[in-house]
Amino acid sequence: TDHSDQSRPPVMQRTLVIFKPDCVQRRLVGQILQRFEAKGLRIAALKMIQVGRELGEQHYAEHKERPFFPGLIGFITGGPVVVGVLAGPEAVSVVRGMMGKTSGIEAAPGTIRGDFSVSKQNNLIHGSDSPESAAREIALWFKAEDVLDYDLAGSGWVYEA
Ligand code: GDP
Ligand code: MG
């Protein structure tokens, strides 16, 4: 996902984003989605759901041995989320960069977590950490036919040829 090798042309990717329960409760969904749209990412899927324990545990399976896991599952199932798929050039690393570091205390100003969070857990947003994670997570949260491919008018002004 590191796109620092400038010789490699940008790859069109999809990534999963979750506007976590704290984001919904703080009414920041629109403001944060606006950042992704303004950046040039395309919304390929978007829905609001109440996450059940099983889906939460599957999504965060890599953390199941961590001490914060029970609290994390309580958090992600503690209220509705908005979950979506964003698409665009190097979408995985672009979204991770816009999110900032996991802890809102450490995240740089200008990033989503840096601007809106002072918590390690309540950090507003999830974004897939690699193209492999994105594929796994998109399949977990969405039916294939509900992730849409379409052209945006004027995309020639946003994307390189
Ligand atoms: P991310 O990829 O930046 O979201 O971070 P991780 O994959 O490491 O952790 C997944 C999620 O678990 C984070 O976004 C936080 O909501 C939560 N989390 C991570 N580390 C901690 C921690 O040390 N304590 C608590 N309470 N929550 C954590
Ligand atoms: Mg992670």
From TrEMBL:
Gene symbol of the encoding locus: ndk
Assembly behavior: Homotetramer.
What range of the parent protein does this fragment cover? Answer: 180 to 340 of 340
> Which species does the entry assign this protein to?
Tautonia plasticadhaerens
- Tell me the active site: H126 (pros-phosphohistidine intermediate)
Chain residues that bind ATP: K20, F68, R96, T102, R113, N123
Hey, which family's this protein in? Belongs to the NDK family.
Its protein name is Nucleoside diphosphate kinase
Tell me the compartments it is located in: Cytoplasm
Q: Which domain of life is it from?
A: Bacteria
Give the protein's biological function: Major role in the synthesis of nucleoside triphosphates other than ATP. The ATP gamma phosphate is transferred to the NDP beta phosphate via a ping-pong mechanism, using a phosphorylated active-site intermediate.
